[in-house]
Amino acid sequence: xxIYLSSPHMSGIEQKYLEEAFAANFVSPFGPQLDKFEDxxxxxxxxxxxxxxxxxxxxxLHLALRIAGVVTSDEVWVSSMxxxxxxxxxxxxxxxxxxxxxxxxxWTIDVSLLTEELEYAARENRLPKVIIPTDxxxxxxxxxxxxxxxxxxxxxxxxxxxxxxxxxxxxxxKAGTGGDASIISFNANKxxxxxxxxxxxxxxxxxxxxxxxxxxxxRDPEPHYEHSTFGYNYRLSNICAAIGIGQMHVLDQxxxxxxxxxxxxxxxxxxxxxxFMPEPLGRYSTRWLTxxxxxxxxxxxxxxxxxxxxxxxxxxxxxxxxxxHMQPLYSGAMYHGNFFDEGLFKNGMCLPSGSAMTEKEQNExxxxxxxxxxx
Length: 375
Ligand SMILES: Cc1ncc(COP(=O)(O)O)c(C=O)c1O
Hints:
Elements: H1 14-23, H2 32-45, E1 50-54, H3 57-67, E2 75-79, H4 88-92, E3 96-100, E4 102-103, E5 108-109, H5 111-123, E6 130-132, H6 143-152, E7 156-160, E8 168-169, E9 173-174, E10 181-185, E11 198-202, H7 205-215, H8 238-249, H9 251-269, E12 274-276, E13 290-294, H10 296-299, H11 303-312, E14 318-319, E15 334-336, H12 340-347, E16 348-351, H13 359-374
The structure holds pyridoxal-5'-phosphate (PLP).
Pyridoxal-5'-phosphate binds next to α3.
């Protein structure tokens, strides 16, 4: 590949924090850089929150679900259109996922569908233990109504904000502050990265304490190794956290750049038959990836044709997430919706959106794309 979908974008500041970590020999899963990174994310998000840095967002979700008390007999409700890491932890605990479609106005979980199903489930005494609404492609879910309705049924909410650090909901509320807990990803392809990493953010002090305990092999407070439950090796390395500190310094700049890239695509590619992911009033998406759909009966080409053409120039694009209810693994799972997500998968694609992408590179993508749709 010459132009990637979303590659790491170092600022240069990371090096200084890495050197500090090396100099003090904190080449370990604990250390001052790890503490500082957690503090920076907490301060960025604001409010009474606790942050636990982990080796991935998938680990963060696993811990959050376990701490929420999810067991094999439970259902967990989740947006169908998402990445596997936002769902697999349900399987780790032996619980069953139930999948939900998106709202066409936001491409995030359909709240009216969720409300309706909660009503039925309450009547039939089969409420889920947890709901995982997913902030898709950098856009926050409709947080307030989801939190309110879930609370009224005593259902916990864990928001998958893996893709949305830097986004806002309702103008002022930051993505990553929602629900009982939120998870954030610092995977290499995200807005900012620690090469691989994640964060559990929660408003419950005891959830954070349990997460730290479980993430470090559930060691009881004894001088020898004593275990009254099983844990995991999920903590983020202090070295990775040092990278994260440098990246936090430039987070807002990175979001601004991704949004600029999105706006530039819209400026040139807003052609008949091409529709971009909407951004509802009051929401501020990170535009982690520029996503759009193609109507082949208007453009004369499919999203797949465009993807293949760009690939010929070594330019990486990708279809949108394949909804989980369409995956062979989940062929027997329950799904609620009108198949809006299936349409997105069929006709949608993500364009190169990394903040390090140059203007020249983006122009090349635009030119080849336009060549496909208008010839
Ligand atoms: C929506 C969503 N959830 C979960 C994850 C898992 O994050 P990680 O790779 O840090 O485990 C990702 C991305 O990688 C994601 O995009």
